[in-house]
Amino acid sequence: MVENKHKVSLTDISIFYGKLHVVKHVSVELPEKEITAIIGPSGSGKSTLLRSLNRMNDHISGMRITGEALIDNQNILANGVDVVMLRRKVGMVFQRPNPFPKSIYENVAYGPKLQGLRSKADLDIIVENSLRQAALWDEVKDRLHVSGFDLSGGQQQRLCIARSLAVGPEVLLMDEPASALDPAATAKIEELMLMLKRTLTVIVVTHNMQQAARVSDRTAFLLGGELVEYDATRKIFTTPQDKRTDDYISGKMG
Amino acid sequence: MPYQQKLVTVAGYTVLLLTAAIFLFVAAQAWPFFREQVDLSFFTGDRWLPVSSPPTFQIKGFLVSSFMITTMAVVLGCPIGILSAVSLAELLPRHVSVLLRSVFEMTAGIPSVVWGFLGLTVIAPFVARVFNLNTGLTGFSAGLVLSVMVLPTLVSLADEALRAVPREYAEASYALGTTRWQTIWRVIVPAARGGLVAAVLLAMGRAIGETMTVLMVAGGRLTTPGSIFEPMRPITALIAAEVTNAARHSEQYHALFAAGLVLFTITLAVNAIAAAVIGGKKEAG
Predict the structure, then answer these.
(1) Angle formed by the axes of helices B251-284 and B235-242, nearest 10°
(2) Distances in whole angstroms, Cα of residue B158 to Cα of each of A76, A132, B110, B207
(3) Touching A: B residues 158-177, CB under 8 Å
(4) Does B96 reach chain A within 8 Å, measured CB to CB?
(5) Count of pairs with CB atoms under 8 A, one residue in A, one in B
(6) Residue A11 β-bridge partners
(7) CA-based R_g, chain A, Å
(8) Does B179 sit within 8 Å of A84, measured CB to CB?
(9) Chain A contact probe: residue of B176, B178, B181, B186 with most A CBs at under 10 A
(10) How many Å apart are CA B168 and CA B173, to the nearest integer?
(11) Segment A160-203, tens digit of pLDDT
(12) Cβ contacts of residue B84 below 8 Å, gap of 6+?
């Protein structure tokens, strides 16, 4: 496998909620324009680790993080970091589709508008491109002004992806993006992820090991907050080095 | 149906029945007056002369006064109330919000006669001095006091509406690289719009129905006020001031009930609209 340059490097990341040590000394380097899956049982700190990459944990009182997290060689945990700018560069898709109670168009245009884009023509282009990139355009192009809630769950999730893409991120964090969807909608999201990695670095947390095996280039296995193993996905799923990884992927655990 | 459930159902219908009964009673007492009334001068005329012969009963002045004072209370109270609710729900640290909420709830318990007394002794003289008026007992002073009195209702309902907005919306917005301020005004407040409108309407209903304060502070002129800086008498104050002097089943007595029926209809309409807005919001959500 040809090594892309590293987009994200974590060194000795520990995250605490009060006295609880949720993520323990994780060091890992994630290559650009690849999909990295973070797998592990519930409570292993996957989501917490993911949400530290766009500083969404900042909103949780009592949260403390140590270590160094570099994105494009900039430490995003440093004091002076502009979190708003960071989040434009590092987008996020949540577990449950969460469109705003606005029209499809307004959902996608929301980010660019708040960045000060006023021109209707420019917004139209961004909305169309983002919806195309999210493989939703053909399904909604005739009804851009109906509520986002009128879409199916899978379509809503792709709308949320389009909404993230409209801001122009370089990294996309996906927190179990298909866990609330049926198999057909899940397949669409996975297909979409493979398209997105041509332009983006994707990091996906998932419970679903088949999903990790199907879409990801690399897999990190977290257990009890510790990074047990991190390698090319094919290796993790065929010849895991650690017995705990073997137990987890063969279903003896979690 | 188990008997407990029956009991609750009966209790629910009793409230409905009581409201209907009160309305019918007021309407019945007003009927003898409306029966004699051949034109709309009751609403459009400016003469309230209960003891002349023949007496005249026209309520335009009181209607206009109610409208002026309510409008002022709402226009002044709404921005303050909504901003307070936003800071309670979104900006202040949680323990401060909890404390302030209980303070607001206590404010709701202050008897209106106390507010009236405050208006009479503090606000009215202050208004007279600032605007150089002969008397501070004006619609303006009453509106000022009322704008504070509606705050507990307004703030607690608006706060509730804002807090009912799913956290996922705010999260989604922050994740798109927006500031707290943008997220509040572009996502949270619009998502709570229905509840906020209902809060304003219910506060308005409270302002229209308030009696003691306006009786004490608004002055008491019986004709249509030319501006809010004049003494005036809203419908509630009219009824409170005269009903004890009106002989039972006299013309004045029935005319006061007629005025009461008008007031009742207005507040009922405002509350019904508020209920419809809340109901509509639930369906849309």
Answers:
(1) 140
(2) 37, 39, 20, 16
(3) 166, 168-169, 171-177
(4) no
(5) 62
(6) A68
(7) 18
(8) yes
(9) B176
(10) 8
(11) 999 999 999 999 999 999 998 999 999 999 999 999 999 999 99
(12) B151, B155, B158, B159
Q: Is the ipTM of this complex over 0.95?
A: no
Instruction: Decide: B229 and B138 in contact? Cβ < 8 Å.
Output: yes
CA distance A47 to B171: 14
Q: Identify the three-state secondary structure at position A90.
A: strand
Output the six-digit token pair for B150: 């509606």
pLDDT tens column, B8-44:
889 889 999 999 999 999 999 999 999 988 788 999 9
DSSP bridge pairs for A8: A30, A71
Contacting residues of A for B176, CB less than 8 Å apart: 87-88, 91, 110-111, 114, 163-164, 167
Q: What is the mean predicted confidence (pLDDT) over A44-51?
A: 95
Q: Looking at beta carbons, which residues of chain A come within 8 Å of B187?
A: 100, 110
Please state the φ and ψ torsions of residue A203, each to the nearest 5 degrees.
-120, 120
3-state helix, strand, coil split of chain A in percent (to 5) is 40, 25, 35
DSSP B40-67: SHHHH---EETTSSS-EE--HHHHHHHH
Task: Please answer yes or no on whether A167 and B177 come within 8 Å at the CB atom.
Answer: yes
The C-alpha atoms of residue B57 and residue B40 are separated, in whole angstroms, by: 11
pLDDT for A1 beyond 90: no
Contact by Cβ (8 Å): A29, A9: yes
**Contact indicator for B189, B196 with CB cutoff of 8 Å:** yes
Burial class (CB in 10 A: 0-12, 13-18, 19+), B179: middle
Q: Which of B172, B186, B284 sits opposite A94 (nearest CB)?
A: B172
Token couple for B203: 């506060």
Give chain A positions within 8 Å (CB) of B284. 101
Chain B residue whose CA is closest to A115: B178
pTM of the model: 0.85
Q: Quick one: pLDDT band at residue A152, thresholds 50, 70, 90?
A: very high
CA distance linking residue B232 with residue B62, whole number of Å: 8
Question: Which residues, 6+ apart, have CB-to-CB distance to B192 below 8 Å?
Answer: B158, B161, B162, B164, B165
The pLDDT tens digits of the residues spanning B89-126 come to: 999 998 999 999 999 888 889 999 999 999 999 999 99
Tell me which CATH homologous superfamily contains domain B3-284. Answer: MetI-like (1.10.3720.10)
The torsion of the CA quartet A99, A105, A109, A114, rounded to 10 degrees, works out to -70
Query: Which of A114, A157, A173 is most worth mutating to test chain B (most B CB atoms within 10 A of its CB)?
Result: A114
Q: What are the residue ranges spanned by the domains of chain B?
A: 3-284
Torsion of CA B20, B23, B24, B26, to 10 degrees: 160
Contact A86, A173 (CB under 8 A): no
- CB-CB neighbours of A2 under 10 Å: 4
